[in-house]
Amino acid sequence: MAKLKFLFLEDSLVDLELIQRQLRKAKIEYDPFHVCDSEGFSETIVKEKPDLILSDFSLPKYDGFSALTAAKQLCPETPFIFVSGTYGEEAAIKTLTMGATDYVLKDRIEKLLPAVQRALNESQDHELRKKAEKERYELEIQLRQSQKLEAMGVMAGTMAHEINNPLFAISEYAALIAKGDIDAEKTKKLALKIRDESERIATIMKDLLRFSREEKGNFKPAEACDIMIKLQSITQQIFKMNKVEVQWENVDKGHSILCREGQILQILLNLVNNSVDSLNQKFPDYDEKKCMNIGVSLKAIEETIYAQFKVEDFGMGIPLEIQESVFKTFFTTKTADRGTGLGLSVSLGIAYEHGGSLYFESVPGESTCFFLNVPIAS
Q: Residue 151 burial by CB count (10 A; 0-12/13-18/19+): exposed, middle or buried?
């Protein structure tokens, strides 16, 4: 383990020895760096990145307020303890409000060791919290990507059918052109059909790739109506294969949300997949009641305008006894090969990250409606 680095800002060698003698009593292993002016102080902070700063309050060419200000700019998380002979109550209060960790008077130097130990312990706790927060964030990213891959697995078969239809049409049109026994006008029409079918495939793949990639960085404006159109594009074959009728509702252009668009689509696709599963349980084959309502509208909540995305199905509903558990991580009513229980818990986290909310209303045995609210960008 690397030694700790202690930076001493002190103009008196006698007082420096007094301070270091106290530290030796605690048998703390550290490398000392001694400076006595502002230039050396700043240079040492930048170069050595100390774990603790012990500073006099009054120096011939430097003062404690300036030293503390510089330290908070250059190394804001490093503990800073004043060890001084002159330190009034007013100055003590001011330096603590400025971010000093503690202060010790030189005529009460025996209080230095508890102050140093406390500062080092707090610093260590802070580092552990930072590490835990980083690990939590990385785990959350992994969970989100796992949930996205799970949703993509459901989509894989349906996408194959969706792309296969235009590919078959392209092949047939190309075969007709290759025979060479049709006139120029018919050839032109077939070529235009090939172009249209190719663009259809390109649109499907573009929407799928946008959804699948791991998104990072800042939020960007996205039209709420465009998100609906993209959701319709990547889910139409899911509904066709499962014989589900869908009523779509959209808003006009001019209502943008700040978001990571792929993550909003991730939430909506997860809700769609859950609804289709519920409908299939209630109606294994075609039924005129096997239907859904999906859309986006504007909703005012406490003086804020939200884009409210809605996914409603008339399937099995959510039993009352599990309604409080559906957002818990790894909670699922599906078998192991059908779901991991990540979907709704991950979706809820994404909604909160966007400054929004995710909730549902359900009548067991009759219907379930999920609402995703995301603030409209001003």
A: buried
Contact 232, 244 (CB under 8 A): no
- 100 vs 138, residue with greater confidence: 100
Please give the helix or strand (H or E) that residue 65 lies within, else none: helix 64-74
Q: Where are the beta strands (DSSP E) in 152-286?
A: 220-223, 245-249, 256-259
In one-letter notation, the amino acid at residue 3 is: K
Phi, psi of 288 (to 5 degrees): -65, -20
Which region among 77-81, 274-278, 331-335, 371-375 has the lowest average model confidence (pLDDT)? 331-335
Burial class (CB in 10 A: 0-12, 13-18, 19+), 29: exposed
* Residue listed under structure tokens 């067991």: 364
Please report, as a single letter, which amino acid is at residue 217. G
For position 343, which CATH number holds? 3.30.565.10
Q: Quick: pLDDT tens for 250-285.
A: 999 999 999 988 889 888 988 998 999 999 999 999
**In this structure, are 64 and 147 located in the same domain?**
no
- Residue 27 φ/ψ region, left for φ over 0, alpha for ψ in the -120 to 50 degree band, beta for the rest: left
Query: pTM for the whole thing?
Result: 0.50
- Counting the structural domains of the chain, the total is 2
Mean pLDDT of all residues belonging to the chain: 85
How far apart, in whole angstroms, are the C-alpha atoms of residue 304 and residue 128?
38
Question: 124 and 186 share a domain?
Answer: no
Q: Please enumerate, as own/partner, the contacts of 248-251 that have beta carbons within 8 Å and a separation of 24 or more.
A: 248/294, 248/295, 249/293, 249/294, 249/295, 249/296, 249/297, 249/310, 250/225, 250/295, 250/296, 251/224, 251/225, 251/296, 251/297, 251/298, 251/307
Cα Dmax for the chain = 108
pLDDT tens-digit profile of 133-162? 888 777 777 666 666 666 555 555 555 655
146 and 43, same domain (yes or no): no
Task: Give me the domain span that covers residue 27.
Answer: 4-132
Same domain for 87 and 225? Answer: no
Helix (H) / strand (E) element for 300: namely strand 291-301
Average pLDDT over residues 192-219: 71
